[in-house]
Amino acid sequence: MTWEHLERGSSPVDWCEGNYLVSPDIAEFVNTISNVLFLLGPPFLIYLFKDYGRFIQPAIHLIWVLLIVVGLSSAYFHATLSLLGQLLDELTILWVFMATLSLFCPRRHFPRIFKRSRKRFCLSMTIFSIVATALSFCHPAINAFALMLLAIPATYLLYKELKIVQDERVYRLGVRNTTILIIAIVCWINDRMFCDTWSSMNFPYLHGFWHILIFISAYPACVLFAYFFVNDERPESRPTLKYWPRNDFELGIPYVSINYDKKFDDAI
Predict the structure, then answer these.
(1) How far is residue 35 from each of residues 88, 116, 194, measured CA to CA in Å?
(2) 14 labelled ligand-binding
(3) Which of 5, 64, 130, 214 is paired with 266 by a 20 to 30 Å CA distance?
(4) Where does Zn(2+) bind (predicted)?
């Protein structure tokens, strides 16, 4: 990585929003500030998942921290349009996906070669992520399209889990999550492929909507797989999908509640 890759405008990717129209210091203003949910949401999710992290899987908090890194990296990229910013943005998305898959994918979906060993599965996912990270430097212009392909296995796994889930609230969240993901991808494609059309309508901001919608889709996906994991491997914890601030308001913030035994709590 040479110093020129730190320079503003060194990325081969430039989104539809006009550059430096609002601030002389921020290339794409809307695309930059639309990452705010990635910064505000995860700290609250860390709080909501405190029991999950304590009794089930402490690494759940790694996912929330990585989402913050995604927001910071994306904001830096859109503010500078530097190649370094682009790579940070894309690679943090890759590692969030791979970390979630490694830690929370139910064992029954593991390829047979791993013999239901999560350790082997995590190791293979780590190796894959390292190789993909190295390859991302070869043709940076196509990285975003390659990342989009990750939505295919994620959606397939979610579909397989929703087919057998017995909790209707979990099922409804999965359906809403998939719908929002589709809308987000439509926004991404339109901003990337049909910029002239949207610019002619004075609305070159679909990538900013992508940031908002993909966060609204990404964190519930992590919540769902955290639920599938504990329901599959620790059913005695009696996981329950709940919502904040009101449990009867399903458009609130979802999280997984753990109904641990008080005696177990005292032993900890």
Answers:
(1) 14, 37, 22
(2) yes
(3) 64
(4) 78, 207, 211
